[in-house]
Write a structure and sequence with these properties.
This protein is mainly α. Helices cover 68% and strands 0% of the residues.
Length: 110
């Protein structure tokens, strides 16, 4: 991971965890919002796809531990699933772009 990305991850992990785990939707929105904010904080050109996946794994573990410490195992599982789906999205994004380097017109066809 690049030095700037490591610094952003350290700052994200050092944030004080708020104890707003009573409302299901609010707790999930808060935790997933923190994860997305962390991803946005490491959005530098030198940050690779693997760096983003590593961040999401760390975020899933961190958020799940916080939820588990609050006795919210359902929230912990939901956050792990959320991060798993985001990792799948990132993996899929990298394979989505396939530029057309040769056009049919360049080969003499229409």
């Amino acid at each position: 991971m690049s030095p700037r990305a490591e610094q952003a991850v350290s700052a994200w992990r050092a944030r004080r965890v708020e104890d707003r785990f009573d409302d299901d939707e609010e707790a999930f929105a808060c935790a997933s919002g923190d994860i997305e904010a962390g991803l946005a904080a490491i959005d530098f050109p030198e940050v690779t796809r693997e760096d983003r996946v590593t961040f999401l794994v760390l975020a899933a573990v961190w958020q799940a531990r916080c939820a588990r410490a609050a006795g919210r195992y359902d929230l912990a599982f939901a956050l792990v699933r959320y991060c798993r789906d985001r990792i799948a999205d990132i993996e899929h994004e990298s394979s989505r772009f396939h530029p057309r380097l040769v056009r049919r017109s360049m080969l003499g066809g229409r």
